[in-house]
């Protein structure tokens, strides 16, 4: 029975949700925070800025490839089974709950951060602006 649980966790908790989280992460860092800001942060931490190859990969190629892989996985997806044994519907329901619980963390904590900033008097949009508190001028 442990193999059944592992298979459900692997299928729903690892593959689907990790792919969605990776797509959201690439979009959030490279498009919302900005690849220029990220490049400046990398320069501050490493002493050199990433070249155009890495910028192109982070901004265009990786999000596009991750999205294509996710779409292909959705098109080719079948409900998991173990050998010839089909899982009951409630097991798939638990799997879908795992996906939702993993992915919902992104907008949930964004909302918590926005509300916290607004209640702290900084303004809701302040969470989308960079600060130089940790950044030393180079």
Describe this structure in words.
It is a single chain. It is extended, with a radius of gyration of 20 Å. Helix 1 runs antiparallel to helix 2 and helix 1 (2-46) packs parallel to helix 3 (89-103). The chain starts with a helix and ends in a 19-residue tail after the last helix. Helices cover 72% and strands 3% of the residues. The chain is built from 4 helices and 2 strands; from the N terminus they run H-H-E-E-H-H. It has 138 residues and is mainly α. Strands 1-2 form a two-stranded antiparallel sheet. A hairpin with a 2-residue loop joins strand 1 (81-82) and strand 2 (85-86).
Task: Describe the structure concisely.
The protein has about 140 residues and is an all-alpha fold.
Order of helices and strands: HHEEHH
Largest sheet: 2 strands, antiparallel
Distance between the termini: 57 Å
Query: By helix and strand content, what is the structural category?
Result: mainly alpha
How confident is the prediction overall: mean pLDDT? 87
Protein topology:
Elements: H1 2-46, H2 52-75, E1 81-82, E2 85-86, H3 89-103, H4 105-119
Antiparallel strand pairs: 1-2
Helix pairs in contact: 1-2, 1-3
Based on the model shown, name its key terms:
about 140 residues, mainly alpha, 4 helices, 2 strands, about 70% helix
């Amino acid at each position: 029975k442990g193999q059944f649980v592992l298979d459900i966790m692997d299928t729903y908790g690892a593959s689907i949700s990790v792919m969605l989280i990776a797509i959201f992460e690439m979009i959030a860092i490279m498009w919302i925070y900005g690849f220029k800001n990220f490049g400046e942060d990398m320069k501050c931490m490493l002493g050199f800025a990433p070249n155009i190859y890495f910028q192109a990969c982070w901004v265009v190629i990786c999000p596009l490839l991750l999205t294509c892989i996710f779409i292909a996985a959705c098109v080719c997806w079948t409900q998991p089974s173990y050998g010839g044994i089909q899982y009951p519907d409630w097991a798939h329901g638990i799997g879908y709950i795992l996906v939702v619980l993993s992915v919902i963390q992104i907008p949930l904590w964004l909302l918590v951060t926005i509300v916290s900033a607004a209640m702290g008097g900084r303004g809701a949009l302040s969470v989308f602006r960079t600060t130089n508190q940790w950044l030393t001028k180079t």
